[in-house]
């Protein structure tokens, strides 16, 4: 286990101190390895009195308090705390937080298992996880939130600590990028959880955050970007004149900051000029600094129970590809998982699985002869023992909270027998299979479709890894149709959805790959188009085992969404299909009412 200095900066923080300290006192970690250091930025409420009262009854190795005679700002106050402490690792923690009891335990494990070039570890925030993208396999991230980050002290000092010119907001991106410019890596630690009371409600816009974060975006372009990045920054910043700001005198504030930016920008530009030789290149995403995953204000909660979940993986002679999928399962925050791996053909992947994934609760078997993906999928379904099933193709990946999110939704919505979330579609250029080397061209959200049976009867909007379903559905309605070469998952979802409800979860929790080259994508699409009509015809005349109210609800959705849904129908040659759907609705309605 590592020794940790926890540094907290306070400013009129009396409402947060009791909860934060109470959670720290309950940690499942040796308290003689933890030092608490508070740096108070000249509070005028009862912050000082509260800290002194807790200090006298401290359970920790040390409890230090430093009271400033002015507000130094977030970064400068944290730097002061670092200079007054000495442990090898420093955990910067906002005071408006409560740490989970295993927060430090998982941080310590992450440090001990991380590659030597990792210098920073970021905890996951509840109830709103920061939505920036991270690598589901390596857990590497491009920048880390300063609300709950652990850094190696020596490397933190080496890169110059927090930039004290930044009073508040943006100092964490700045530190992250300087660490990366020095060749270090940053790692997300999703099993280490901190509840952060940063927003009183979803989509809240805080004036201080709005003006400081937008201004710092411009300053970071001066510090890390090209002149092109800076010009884009000014174009964006000038655009703020034409939005309704969160404060009165909004335009006046923006005008003053634009004037100040020409002077401040020169100060920030000095770092860029001194570090031209570094290979680091900043990647600005408009106002963001990384690709954003949908679900920024999804309210994360731990599931109330831990039923066994079976992750079903079909693979075929490519262990280096399978390895990444298995690592993404290993990284899940949900604990009770069974991995069922079925290999189509010889047991090529057996030795890799046995030597590298003994820590997983897995079942592996190979068919020896190639029998096809549908039969392999049915073997996995029949082998699985979980209460819930979730397919995962061997070249797709799960973000760390995927299982946790879907289990929670199924437990809290017992009237739904399946749940599905949002996923990235990632065109991928495979450079090598052994070793597995690839290039991701971009991340795209192809499907954000609320549950609608009529839309599902027209086209599939459930990428296979996005869906978790109850075991009982499979036992009642069967598995995959072995006569289908592709779209076997769509056929499966249609059979299940025409009788049971699927819960739509507005959070992105996985990614699936498609071929990057148009020639490969084109031949793949031809195969899909062929089976599209086969699956449609198979289900067109089947009886819908749902209420007339549900049928009309789905139909009403179609009528109210012509710009999106009807366009999709027309694009896929669906005019006749819509007509048939209408006839089907009327037929069922007449039959039920009779």
From TrEMBL:
<dbReference type="InterPro" id="IPR029044">
    <property type="entry name" value="Nucleotide-diphossugar_trans"/>
</dbReference>
<keyword id="KW-0808">Transferase</keyword>
<comment type="similarity">
    <text>Belongs to the glycosyltransferase 2 family.</text>
</comment>
<feature type="domain" description="Glycosyltransferase 2-like">
    <location>
        <begin position="310"/>
        <end position="443"/>
    </location>
</feature>
<dbReference type="Pfam" id="PF13641">
    <property type="entry name" value="Glyco_tranf_2_3"/>
</dbReference>
<dbReference type="GO" id="GO:0016740">
    <property type="term" value="F:transferase activity"/>
</dbReference>
<dbReference type="Pfam" id="PF00535">
    <property type="entry name" value="Glycos_transf_2"/>
</dbReference>
<dbReference type="InterPro" id="IPR001173">
    <property type="entry name" value="Glyco_trans_2-like"/>
</dbReference>
<dbReference type="InterPro" id="IPR050834">
    <property type="entry name" value="Glycosyltransf_2"/>
</dbReference>
<feature type="domain" description="Glycosyltransferase 2-like">
    <location>
        <begin position="6"/>
        <end position="120"/>
    </location>
</feature>
<protein>
    <submittedName>
        <fullName>Glycosyl transferase</fullName>
    </submittedName>
</protein>
């Amino acid at each position: 286990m590592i020794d940790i200095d926890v540094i907290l900066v306070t400013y009129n923080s009396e409402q947060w101190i009791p909860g934060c300290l109470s959670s720290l006192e309950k940690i499942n970690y040796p308290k003689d390895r933890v030092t608490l250091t508070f740096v108070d930025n000249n509070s005028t409420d009862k912050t000082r009195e509260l800290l002194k009262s807790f200090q006298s009854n401290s359970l920790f190795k040390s409890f230090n308090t430093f009271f400033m005679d002015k507000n130094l700002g977030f970064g400068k106050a944290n730097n002061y705390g670092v200079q007054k402490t000495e442990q090898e690792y420093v955990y910067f923690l906002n005071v408006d937080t409560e740490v989970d009891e295993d927060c430090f335990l998982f941080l310590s494990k992450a440090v001990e298992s991380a590659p030597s070039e990792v210098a920073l570890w970021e905890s996951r925030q509840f109830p709103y996880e920061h939505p920036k993208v991270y690598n589901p396999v390596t857990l590497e991230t491009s920048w880390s939130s300063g609300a709950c980050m652990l850094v190696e002290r020596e490397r933190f000092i080496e890169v110059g600590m927090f930039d004290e010119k930044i009073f508040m907001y943006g100092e964490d991106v700045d530190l992250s990028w300087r660490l990366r410019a020095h060749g270090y890596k940053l790692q997300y630690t999703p099993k280490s959880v901190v509840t952060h009371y940063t927003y009183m409600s979803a989509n809240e816009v805080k004036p201080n955050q709005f003006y400081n974060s937008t201004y710092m975006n411009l300053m970071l372009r001066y510090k890390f970007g090209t002149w092109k990045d800076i010009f884009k920054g000014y174009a964006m910043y000038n655009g703020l004149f034409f939005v309704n700001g969160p404060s009165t005198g909004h335009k006046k504030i923006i005008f003053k900051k634009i004037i100040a930016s020409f002077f401040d920008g020169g100060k920030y530009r000095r770092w860029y000029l001194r570090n031209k030789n570094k290979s680091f290149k900043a990647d600005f995403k408009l106002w963001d600094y990384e690709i954003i995953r949908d679900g920024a204000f999804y309210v994360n909660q731990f599931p109330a129970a831990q039923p066994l979940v079976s992750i079903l993986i079909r693979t075929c002679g490519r262990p280096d590809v399978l390895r990444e999928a298995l690592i993404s399962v290993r990284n899940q925050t949900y604990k009770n998982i069974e991995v069922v791996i079925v290999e189509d053909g010889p047991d090529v992947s057996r030795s890799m699985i046995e030597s590298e994934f003994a820590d997983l609760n897995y079942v592996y078997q190979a068919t020896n002869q190639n029998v096809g993906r549908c039969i392999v999928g049915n073997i996995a379904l029949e082998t699985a023992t979980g209460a819930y099933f979730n397919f995962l193709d061997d070249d797709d990946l799960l973000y760390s909270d995927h299982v946790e999110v879907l289990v929670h939704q199924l437990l809290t919505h017992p009237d739904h027998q399946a749940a599905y979330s949002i996923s990235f579609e990632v065109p991928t250029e495979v450079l090598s299979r052994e070793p597995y080397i690839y290039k991701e061209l971009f991340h795209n959200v192809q499907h954000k479709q609320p549950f609608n049976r009529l839309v599902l009867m027209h086209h599939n909007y459930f990428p296979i890894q996005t869906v978790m379903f109850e075991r009982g559905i499979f036992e009642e309605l069967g598995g995959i149709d072995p006569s289908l070469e592709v779209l076997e998952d769509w056929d499966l979802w249609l059979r299940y959805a025409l009788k049971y409800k699927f819960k739509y979860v507005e959070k992105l929790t996985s990614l699936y790959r498609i071929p990057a080259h148009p020639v490969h994508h084109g031949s793949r699409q031809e195969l899909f188009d062929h089976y599209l009509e086969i699956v449609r015809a198979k289900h067109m005349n089947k009886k819908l085992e749902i209420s007339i109210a549900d049928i009309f609800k789905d139909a009403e959705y179609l009528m109210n969404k012509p710009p999106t849904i009807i366009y999709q129908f027309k694009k896929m040659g669906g005019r006749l299909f819509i007509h048939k759907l209408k006839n089907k609705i009327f037929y069922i309605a007449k039959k039920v009412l009779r």
